[in-house]
What does this fold into?
Amino acid sequence: MDSATSDRRPAERTPLSRSADNGLKIVIVGGFGVGKTTLVRSVSDIRPLNTEEVMTQAGEGIDDPSAVRGKTSTTVAFDFGRIGLDERTVLYLFGAPGQERFWFLWDRLFAGTLGAVVLVDTRRLADSWYAIDRLEHHGTPFIVARNDFGGPAHTGEQVRDALDLPAHIPLINCDARSRESSKAVLITLVEHLHALSSAQESAAAQETHP
Amino acid sequence: MSRPGRDEDPDRLYIVTGGRSRADTDAFDLVTLVVAESEPALGMQSEHVKILRMAERPTAVVEIAAELRLPVSVVRILLGDLLALGRITARHPRTGAARAGGSSLPATDILEQVLVGLRNL
It folds into this structure.
């Protein structure tokens, strides 16, 4: 569904500013074909890149060559893009598959993420149950964005019910092909994070100065 | 867009890392920005040379992995070598997270900075 030929950004690397010193990340989680790469492409400064991580079985010796030689390893590929926010701050957007084996690598790859967007296709809502479950388990704050594939209309309440999504977690509609819409998804997430963080900071202040 | 490493010869990965499968250090986040502190030297391993060239400007670990078409874990090992030799420095992510009691929400001032950047896109 993503046509690389329609991307007019240059294929060569675009370097960051010399003053760049803080890389932040947001993860877009979703099932196959839900539009993760499309969303990343819509807002990224660079043509999305692809890389992978290999997880070896726990407990292996550091010098065990079999760890690299494949039999005992799991490979997870993911896409990413980049947004220069200011002279010093760069936001990386990762498109991560929601499949089960991927979650073994969550901590290694995405610890320290600001938060996550669960991108869903209302025709296949069950695909995102596992991802939501895992994000809750990891304590990673997230919002849910419903990518519009022009299917039958569901109300927000229906989607919320189907996902068993608590009322305080934002659920928004988006069109991942649109830059403005994808931008709005990211802003909704960061505003949600800001609300959570403000609440936590004021609670901490209360404890210190009752 | 091709997926790097998918059909990678495992021997190449083995040779690149000198047989190590794990970095000695957790110093490198995916988005840690790496900066070269010296020119590549004669006789240096080709991957080290490529990293130093890329990192003439700050470059994230994950971009290095994508460019070299190597798994992130392998790149972390290579970066660990260069860091130990003082040939690179690392600019680590700062989210301002307190990390206390398992909670790791980013600090509000960092989030405000991100919001300003996103709204200006």
Remarks:
- Residues 4-208 of chain A form a domain with the Rossmann fold fold (CATH 3.40.50.300).
- The first strand of chain A starts at residue 22 and ends at 30.
- The beta strands of chain A are 22-30, 49-56, 73-84, 89-97, 115-120, 142-147, 171-174.
- Chain A has one domain: 4-208.
